[in-house]
Amino acid sequence: MAEPIAPAALMAACAPIADRAATLRASAIREIFDAAQRVPGALRLEVGEPDFASPPWVVEAADRAARDGATHYTPNTGIAPLRDALADKVRRVNGWEATAAQCIVTAGGVQALHLASPPCSTPATRCCCPIRCGPTSP
């Protein structure tokens, strides 16, 4: 069995990372968020957060789900009932044929674009914005 690393040795090994981390700027989206926090009545669009409280039925459903044990990681593509409901909505509302297997649920728009871009392009594909840019980009 290997001997544990002494704390001083561990800190010394991490020093180059720690020094570099000390020079990193805060995310621009967080700077905007912090500035907007100081403006009463500001229209808050910087983090995609709604400007209203969650409706009671959403709070109750989340509470019920947590009490029923839905507190673990989900599949990367989303839970089956949600993907089924999404496919149904796409068929019913949008008029497109869709199956749950064709639906992926993401945590947000940036993740969705990141996942959708590679299969929709090739190295020769011309893009309007070939690099990721936006408030969350360095």
Task: Draw up the topology in text.
Layout: H1 7-22, H2 28-37, H3 56-67, H4 80-94, H5 109-116
Q: What is the terminal-to-terminal distance? A: 42 Å
Order of secondary-structure elements:
HHHHH
Low-confidence stretches: none
Overall average pLDDT: 80
| Quaternary form | single chain
Number of helices: 5
Largest beta-sheet characterization:
none
Measured by DSSP, the beta-strand proportion falls in under 5%
Overall body shape? extended
Helix content: 40-55%
Number of strands: 0
Structural class: mainly alpha
**Cα-atom radius of gyration:** 22 Å
Kindly list the characteristics that best describe this protein:
single chain, 138 residues
Please give a quick description of this structure:
The protein has 5 helices and no strands. It is mainly alpha-helical. The two termini are 42 Å apart.
What does this protein structure show overall?
With 138 residues, the protein is mainly α. Helices cover 44% and strands 0% of the residues. The protein is built from five helices and no strands. It has helices at 7-22, 28-37, 56-67, 80-94, 109-116. The protein starts with 6 loop residues before the first helix and ends in a 22-residue tail after the last helix.
